[in-house]
Amino acid sequence: MGVVAFPLFLFFLRTGHISAWIVAFAVAIAAMLTGFKATRQAPDSADPSSTVWLARGGAVLGLVFVGVTGLFVWEALQRKGRPSSSEGSVLGQIRTLISAEAAYQAASGGSYGPPDCLAAPTTCLQAYPVNQPAFLDSQIASLAPHNGYKWTFHPGAAAA
């Protein structure tokens, strides 16, 4: 049973089927319990061909699998609620875009601008000094896909 639990667990890792994990975990628990019970019932012998070594091996494999499963569950619980690295990067870019829009609004007298105006404000704001930095990096303003996300800009109603 201890040997059978590992291929089931590998199948779970490959496919993500939770049913395979449940079956593998149940088989590992059964391997542990039957291995410990058989270890107590088998006569102790130093002979490597003795059945006590098979019982101990099954119990140890069951224990190892339960421990590995515990680590996977612990790691999944630690990751839960945290965005992945690409999501964190995209969220940072969205915050940057919001800050750039707020700065552009202050410089333009109250209107917001499209991403290309945020990257090159002198093309949209006539009174914007040439020596001042842009509000937004041109890479973010390009609306090219970032970290697997497609960006689009939907302009609202024109300012009065």
Q: Could you describe the 3D structure shown?
A:
The protein has 6 helices and no strands. Helix 1 runs antiparallel to helix 2, helix 1 packs parallel to helix 3 and helix 2 packs antiparallel against helix 3. The protein is 62% helix and 0% strand. The chain is an all-alpha fold.
List the helices and strands and how they pair.
Elements: H1 2-15, H2 18-41, H3 51-79, H4 85-108, H5 115-119, H6 138-141
Helix pairs in contact: 1-2, 1-3, 2-3
> What percent of residues adopt helix (DSSP H or I)?
55-70%
Compute the separation of the termini in Å: 75 Å
Total DSSP E strands: 0
Radius of gyration: 30 Å
Main beta-sheet strand count, sense and barrel state:
none
Unreliable sequence segments:
none
N-to-C order of helices and strands: HHHHHH
Q: Count of helical segments?
A: 6
Q: Give the strand content.
A: under 5%
Mean pLDDT: 79
Give the helix/strand class.
mainly alpha
Any idea what the shape is?
A: rod-shaped
Short key terms for the protein model shown above:
mainly alpha; 160 residues; 6 helices
Question: What is this structure, in a nutshell?
Answer:
The protein has 160 residues and is an all-alpha fold. It has helices at 2-15, 18-41, 51-79, 85-108, 115-119, 138-141. The protein starts with a helix and ends in a 19-residue tail after the last helix.
